[in-house]
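Data availability (excerpt). All sequences and predicted token strings are deposited with the supplementary files. A representative entry, Cytochrome P450, is shown inline so that the format can be inspected without opening the archive.
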Amino acid sequence: MAAHPEAQRTAQDEIDRVFGDTLPKDVDGTQLPYLRAVFWEASRFEIRFEHRREKYMAFTNAHQVLRWRPSFPTSIPHATSKDDTYNGHFIPAGTTVLMNTWAIHHNEEDYPNADQFDPTRFLENEFGTASSDPSANDASRRRTYAFGAGRRVCAGQDMAEKTMLLSMAKLLWAFDMRYGSQYL
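Structure token line:
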């Protein structure tokens, strides 16, 4: 949030309107649509680790956090159990298969200006896509593929989203986040 002070302020204003002077204790994404949009947009990011002064520190900025920079840019590997053909390509049994989450989340047809942090894309369209093609907004689509897809999608996705929204709401309710001078 330190990298996006305008998004931070908008989220804080929304939290203040809903909770006022009361610490958020339960968050429903429908109460806080902008905060939920920030979560989904942040779902494009990956956490980077940088070696600095013999310490590893996680940091995020405008170029690093689940859709923009996913934690697992190529998802968790799976292997085919039998020979298969996909889009005319033969895939032998035992082939390692990865979902390229980064490429999905950076498809300029779906996410114009994909390298920009823009939570409003999820306010305009629940999938954050710009496509006018009705199939682009099909219910089988996902807001983010950071939690995987298909039968092996993360079983904890809903719990993770609710936990993250509550954590974000509490932190933004209580604090203004900004970079320390060593990061400027």
